Structures are given as C-alpha cells and as structure tokens.
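Troubleshooting entry. Yesterday's outputs looked truncated, so today I'm pasting the complete records for two proteins to confirm everything comes through intact. If either block looks cut off, that's the bug. Protein one:
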Amino acid sequence: MNSQNLLNIAKKFGAPVYVYDAEKITSQFNRLTKAFKGVGSLRLNYATKALSNISILRLMNNLGSGLDTVSVQEVKLGLMAGFKPESIIYTPNGVSLEEIEEASALGVQINIDNLSILEQFGSKHPDVPVCIRINPHVMAGGNSNISVGHIDSKFGISIHQIPHLLRIVDLTQMNINGIHMHTGSDILDIDVFLYASEILFETAKNFKNLEFIDFGSGFKVPYKAGDIETNVEELGKKLTKRFNEFCNEYGRELTLAFEPGKFLVSEAGHFLAKVNVVKQTTSTVFASVDSGFNHLIRPMLYGSSHEISNISNPNGKERYYSVVGYICETDTFGSNRRINEISEGDILSFKNAGAYCFTMASNYNSRYRPAEVLWYKGKAHLIRERETFDDILRNQVDAKELFEPPKKVVAK
C-alpha cells in the first residue's frame, strides 16, 4: 500500500480515517509462525484489545489464529467473527465471578489471575478446565503503564503465592490445564524473557494435566527507521529448543501459546488526518490537524512516537513542525519533527496506527470517531462508518421535562 493509495482512501472516505493493510498483518502472522516452526503444537492467540473490528477478527480467524480476550464482550465479538469457543482464551483482570461464569458458559478457555476468584470458581465449577496467570516478577515494558510483571502489579498470581495456589487447587480438586504469564509490552531483552520462561516452566511442574503453556506476548515493533525491535527469530530458536526439552521432561507434548496483538497489527495501520492550520509562533511552526488524542491517544498517554509524513507533498523541502490536534488542552502528536513542507489541506499519515488507536478512541469534546478501512487484495473496503451526530446522542436520555420553565401564576 503506497502513498497514492492512502491519498485515494482519504479522498474517498474522508479524513481523519484509519487504514489497515491486510497483507502486512498476514506477513507478521507468518513471520511469527515461521520463527516457532520447530514446535510440534503452536497456537497464536490474537490479542483482541489491540484492534477489535469484527472484519479484522475475521481476517485473523482466516489466518488460523486463536483469540485472546479480556472481556466477555470481546469473547462475543470473537464468536460472531467465526472463532470456535475452544480457540478463544479469556484473560480478564479484576472482573466479577459472574462475568467469568458468563464467559465460561460460552465454552471458552478461562484464565484466572487472582487467588480469590480462583477459589470461588474452583469451588463452584471444579470440572471446568482453568488456566492460571502467573506473575513471574520479571518486568518488561517501555512505559510504566504497560509493564505488568513487577512485584506490585495488579496482574497475575505472584510466584511467592504458589503454595497458597496449590492448596486451593488441592482442596477444590479443580482441573488446571494451562499456565500463563505476561511480563509487559515492548520486550527488548530476549534473555530476560527466557529467564521469566524458566520460572514458568518451574511452576508448570506442579501441575500434572497441563495442555498448554502460554507465554503472553509484548513483542516490540519498530516505530521509526532503525528502531530496535524484538528479534522474534532468535527468540523462536532459543525458546523452541527449551520448550521441547521441557516437554520431554514433562512426559508429553504441550502446546506453546502466544498472544500477539501489537506485533500483528501495529505496522499495518496508518492514521490519516488533514491539516487545518499552519501556525507560526515566535519559536515554533505548528501543523494543526483535524484530529487529536481523542483518536490517537498513545503519544500523550505513553509518550509513544509515531512517524509522521506528509503524503500530499512527499518530495517537498523538509522543515520542522510540531504536529498538534484540535482538543482543547495539550494535544501533541510530535514536537519539532522534520516533515516535507506542509500546507493547509495536506494529508498527514501517522504510522504504526494499527494497535491501540481506534480501540482507545473516544468522543471527547463531542467529536466523532473516524471511519476504518481495510486494504485487502489491492482494494479499499470500508469496515466501520464514520460517526454522525446521531451517534453522539445515542443512548442519551434528554430529560428536558425537568427543566421546563415553571408555569406563570396569574393573580386574580
């Protein structure tokens, strides 16, 4: 998908708009599969929260992916997209027992990350197979908001609580069929990940009926030229060798599972926005676009860097711009970026907009959420319509009768 394709999409569907390249998603899926080709049984469960459009889920199902979900709503989306219940794993955090039971009734794999719910669920449903999410206290993540393996994390059951965990399993006689961990996103050091894996292998020895070991995900993708990324080929080679050794020790072949989200869809995404105003101040040239952190919150929330290019003027002279949005507070996409000369009306492309962009979008400032387009086999397909004012009012209850002026009393 080239710049002219993107410009044509912006012209046809309007801006702002999210565009996803199905070919890039497919190549990333195949790359990860190839990296672990030495494993007898591999399951890639796409992390729905990264990009949950039902057409994207259908594409993943078509590729042979499983599904990682964190809410019962994502479970239902997955079932609507054609996933079989047994190919969906449900890994919530801090939800009620009732929601877990609702997901369980749909037939999906349950993954529990705290002792309280584990004991309650095991006592009521001892025959339902359950995976346990372990916190190995090994931290990954490029930002504190996405580092979930530290000792004070709300995610997972601490490895220091294993004796308590085993007591619950023994008393309830529940069926533990999987062990899971997730250290956080943006994994850079493969050796740190392998160290956490050893903790998971050691924990797995306590359970005799395992079917799979789930290593989570968090593979880092490049956000600009020359950026560091997770070497999945090296990880595949080292972890495959160790996993196969463990299966021999365990006495039977297990399934190795991952939950890639950003790795599969981030680089496939482009967010297109039109420049409303070019504003020169005493020290800065601002390019203000018809969008804001209501559509792409990651730079403001995580400090993430998205490469920005002017696809309307790809050969223009480079100048320095601070690209900002229209939200009425600090709303910066990038400061002092070298971008081909920008004029009002130009279309800017924000790369790596496939993961955690639309799914974290909002109607802040009562703005509409944009359309989504899938580029598939050389054609652009609308997969979500742009919102309208009716969508802003949807589900609101106008209690106007409460505020009608009082009736005048006429003195007689």
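Protein two, checking that the full record survives here as well:
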Amino acid sequence: MNEVTVPRPNNLDAYWMPYSDNRYFKANPRMIARAEGMHYYTPEGREILDGTAGLWCCNAGHGRREIKEAIQQQAAILDYAPTFQLGHPIAFEAAARIAEMTPDGMDKVFFTNSGSESADTALKIALAYHRARGESSRVRLIGRERGYHGVGFGGMSVGGIGGNRKQFSGLLPYVDHLPHTHGIAENVFARGLPEHGAHLADALENLVALHGAETIAAVMVEPVAGSTGVLVPPKGYLERLRQICTKHGILLIFDEVITGFGRLGTNFGAERLGVIPDIMTMAKGLTNAAVPMGAVAVRNAVYDAVVEGSPAGIELFHGYTYSGHPLAAAAAIATMELHRAEDLPGRARAIEPYWQEAAHSLRTLPNVIDIRDCGLIAGIELAPRPGKPTQRALDIFRRCFDEGVLVRVTGDIVALSPPLIIEKPHVDRLIGTLAEAIRAEAA
C-alpha cells in the first residue's frame, strides 16, 4: 500500500502580517486558498464573493488565463534583466501601452513595484523638476488630511492618516497639508460628486501665503480617496486645485493607484473628473495584481525639464532593482489588453447606476450615517459603538466573510470596490449580505 503524505498544518507563527491584528488573526484565522472570476475560495472550498477586488486591484477578476499565460511565457524567455544602463524590449512595450491610456501629453513612464514606491518616486521627480529649472528653493510638499499615499517615508509624510504616522518619528520636513473634504453636512448621502466643498481647495492659497509659492514643489491628492473611507471630491474642487497650482507654478500629482484602470469607468480618474495633473501614480490594477508593479506617468514637459536640463550622464538618480521587471511587464501588457478587449471601463460605466442604487439602499439600516459613491466604489459610514471605535465595522467584516462575502473596512467605514466584471446578481448578493450583517451588528 502506497504511503499517503499528509501536509502538516500551517505554522502561523513566522509570518508578521501587514496592517493586521496579528494576535487576533492567529487565534481566529480566516484563510483564502485560491481565486477565480468574482470569487475567492477558502482551504475548505467555501466560496467568498470578492467585494473589494482583492485590495482595490484585481479589476479584471481573478485567475485570468491571459495574464497567467503571459507570465509563464515570459518566465521561459527572460526571467530577469537589470534596467540600469540596460534595457529589455518588454519594459518599453509596457510603457508604450500605458502611454496610450494616459491623458494626452503624459507620455513618459517610470516603473516602480508598488503604489508606495510610485508615491515616493513622484515626489522625487517633482523635486528634481524644480531643481533642473533652477528653482531649488521649491522643496515643500503639500498633501491632504486623510490622504493615503502608501507607506514609504515620502508618501507617509505627505499622507494624512494619523494612525499610519503615530508610531514613526523622523518623517520628511517641509510638508504641509490641505484640509480634507469630509463631513460637510449638506453632502451626507450624496450620489456621485457632492455639491458642496469646492471652496476647500482655496486652502492652498493660504499655504502659498504662509510658505511662499517659491518654496512649494508639489501638491499630491487622490482623485477619490479610498483607504481613508471613500472621500469623493466635491464638484469643482479638483478644478480649483488645478487652477491654483498652475497659477503658482506648483506641480499637481494625482495618486491614481486606486482610481486608475477603469475603477471610475474611465482609464484614469483624471479622465472621469476632467482634470489633468502633471504627474500621475499608478499600481494595483496595472497588472491585475498578478505581479507587483507600479508606475509614474509625467507630462512630457516634466520629463524634458529633468532629462534635458541635467548634465551629461544619469539624469535622475533614482530607481529600483525590479523596475520594469520582465514578468511584471508581461502581466501589465496582458492586463491592458484585457481592459481594451473587454472594455472593462465601459462595463463599469454600464453597471454604475445599478451599483449606486444598491449601495444607497442601505441608507435606512441601523447606524448607517452616510453613503458615498463614485464609479464602482462605495463607502458606507457607520456610527461607532460607544467607547469602541472601529469595532462595529470589524465585526461586520468578519460576519460578512463568514457568510461568504469579502468587504473591506477602514475605521468605521465599509469600503466596497468589486472587480469590474461584476454583474447584477453579484451586486445583489454583496449588498444583501452586507445589509444582513449591518442589521446583526446593530447593538
């Protein structure tokens, strides 16, 4: 009789999990073992509807054959090649494909490996741009309260989520923040872009008066803030930021890590919202999360200033060992081809009205104090339990998972961002399960 090898149970001790309550999880593990289409599956084979596209990133759904085969084929041809003073063709092809999707005049692409690296890269490019133009006094970076730009020291400094900063000292100097746009009473339960709050962009004029325009290099914002709980920009707000930046020679950076690649029904949020930045960061949906990759696209004038304005030799002393990694580039090309062939942004636009109605149907449930949406994103804000902030949302997250639906929580806000291949029955199940969990956690 053949001996059967039984795998030993997982050892949960060694892995220090990111952004997790490690003690709770290791006492109460919830595991995912595989994924396909709109669903994850537990090790026991239980189906979990993905209401978050992983972490805002699997826009084309899970297990896409086209992406898998592109990675496999590339691994057999070229597994890795350095990109310092050398090149490999597929990185150039991937950059060209991205440039086809970005707004006109943003044709230069720098590769990173994550949204965090993209944020820090964008900030460094902004500083290098002003220095190349003889304005080296422009060293100040402006973010926004409740902004999220990853976990590098640059993005974390410019970001404005207190919980991400309080454990760490020695963040970047010369940083200031605009006020966030959340909490305007007239905007509660707004559908799409809220009507009130464009005036908050004028706070940038106050920072210019305080610090001097000649000291400010860039302003970085998310077109729609995701990780802080789905904060949708008021009508006219981003346009006003663009006007003030242009007036004072300040670069405007959009962090499109969440809003890029179809999430708002267009290739990028800049297109949906009608405002073109000078620099744009991306990651997540770029490769459908199959291989880590990020990128920064810049206006041609920014590239030309840095490259043509530098002495002979290396123009930008920045980059990563894995910039433009062959497998990541192959995954990106296959992903962008899927977006084009299946018109994933168009699919998002088509189902957006149904999605919006479904999300706002939760309005009358216990403890729901606001609902926000834009594209295929929704945020359901809950009243916290007295003395136990975040606990209500966490309990809803766990209850939903146990009932076969994955949602994401940030503070006391449930954030939803499903794959763009979602269909109406999926929406019904997602919102229905969430509604039952909200009712169950009413106390």
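Both blocks look complete. Sanity check on protein two: The chain has two domains: 22-63+343-440, 67-342.
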